Amino acid sequence: MVASFPFKRVEMVVNTASGGVGLDAPEAARQILAAHGVEAMVRSPQDGDLMDILRRAVAAQPDLLIVLAGDGTARAAAELCGADGPVLAPLPGGTMNMLPRAIYGDRSWRDALEAILVDGEVRPLGGGEAEGRLFLVAAILGAPALWAPAREAVRHGRLDLAWTRARLALRRAFSGRLRYALGEGGRGKSEAIAFLCPAGSSLLADADQVMEAVVLDPAGAAEAFRLGFNAMLGDWRRDPAATSWPCRSAAVWAARGLPALLDGEPVRLSARVRIGWRPVVVRVLAPSVAG
To answer: 10-126+282-287, what's its fold?
Structure first.
């Protein structure tokens, strides 16, 4: 093992069934690690259930856990590692790759792995909680979450299906507004509200111990369609209907359950949700800023 690489016990979990990973990924990862003198236990779903494999990898008490999978697996790994457990390297292996993109930019998983092996640094990563569910990049509650199926259809080149899903989302968008109360001030009604962690915000620095609360409130169907279209393209944050405040805690409620996206994954939350900030969820291995 190279002298500059400080981790002696390394575990890697590769989900070969994930969208951005191939069947040859475990062997390719072993070769990259070996080229840098790093010995690692590389596990994949062929060894059993993915979550069980992930738990076994953390239970082995490694110094570093590398995960090549989608956002849901990366978030689960962060919860299992915790603030005092193994350092986590969540490589991009899914379709959206929200957390990996925030840490590694647009690097491929191979390039990201090379970067942290050559010149990686450990950083603390904070995150938010919604009904006890963790998010490390962003949580979107309300109407834009309804556009997720349309966005996925666009990603797969199904524009006909995307249009059908977009019309359904637009019809449902004004079925009920939500209310919000931000801990640091600010109450109101809106079509949707998002909470961005520093990893997902262009306005916050990584060291900031606060979220960015973004209220999304289109004034009519035309603005709602534009907001939904921007949500499909991942550019809703810059929409003119968006305004933001710093926030560490909040309450959001609606007449019925809230559709939501937590780090890009659709979930259904209860009619009243508390949002909170956790300063350190996990430590991650990222490319050195100096490098």
So the answer is: Rossmann fold (3.40.50)
Please provide residue 210's backbone torsions phi and psi, each rounded to the nearest 5 degrees. -165, 155
pLDDT single digits (tens) 262-286 = 887 878 899 999 999 999 999 999 9
With tokens 């637009």, the residue in question is 170
| Annotated domain spans of the chain | 10-126+282-287, 138-262
Dump pLDDT digits (tens) for 100-120.
999 999 999 999 999 999 999
pTM above the 0.90 mark? no
Same fold, 10-126+282-287 and 138-262: no
The C-alpha atoms of residue 70 and residue 280 are separated, in whole angstroms, by 21
Q: Which residue's entry shows tokens 């490694």?
A: 62
Those residues with Cβ within 8 angstroms of residue 142's Cβ, 6 or more apart along the chain or in another chain: 178, 190, 191, 192, 193, 216, 254, 258, 259, 260
Choices 1.10.3470, 2.60.40, 1.20.1440, 2.60.200: CATH for 138-262? 2.60.200
- What whole-number percentage of the chain has pLDDT above 70? 76
285 SS3 class: strand
Buried b (16+ CB within 10 A) or exposed e, 64-88: bbbbbbbbbbbbbbbebbeeebbbb
Pairing between β-strand 64-69 and β-strand 87-92 as defined by DSSP bridges: parallel
